[in-house]
Amino acid sequence: MRELRRVAVFCGSQAGDDPAFAETARELARGLVARRLELVYGGGSIGLMGVLADEVLARGGHVIGVIPRTLFVREVGHRALTECRLVETMHERKAIMADLASAFVTLPGGYGTLDETFEALTWGQLGIHSKPVVLVNARGFFGPLVAAVDRAAETGFLSAKHRSLLNVVSTPEAALELISSWKPPFPPEEWLSRETR
User: Fold this and answer.
1) What is the pLDDT of residues 145-159, one digit of tens each?
2) FRET label pair with 45: which of 22, 86, 131, 195, CA 20 to 30 Å apart?
3) What kind of fold does domain 6-181 have according to CATH?
């Protein structure tokens, strides 16, 4: 993996119904700034996305937002970022975020958050990258999702090797520790193999 400089964070454009989710986003923001890591995220000003970006900015951190032009003009785009990259499609957004970042961290969110996370995992499975993907399981939010992934492995739809690509921790600090010491679980040339399912 290249030098850890930027972290892509996937999280909800809603804040959720538990204040603990927003506090988790703030805790992650504080950790990023303390480690001098830049934030790459979806460019929104609302929900956990806005909480995360605002906290990083308030502490003097660097924030790169990547957002489709149509979403930005609907006034969900954050207008005070260090850098804002306007793109035309969601596909372009995800590709740019993945290229900019050295690691992926996921906080609670909905369809978009899950889509981004699983695309990062799929690209890892296919050998397109060898970067860590980490879920922060705040308040057990991702418990049922992790159980579904485990079920896919148990029933032969996902190899044990590729199941290991999904890392699950309980706190932002644990996520930052994991990505700081990350070593791919197997050599990059083995990522794409007959076991890919």
Assistant:
1) 999 999 999 999 999
2) 131
3) Rossmann fold (3.40.50)
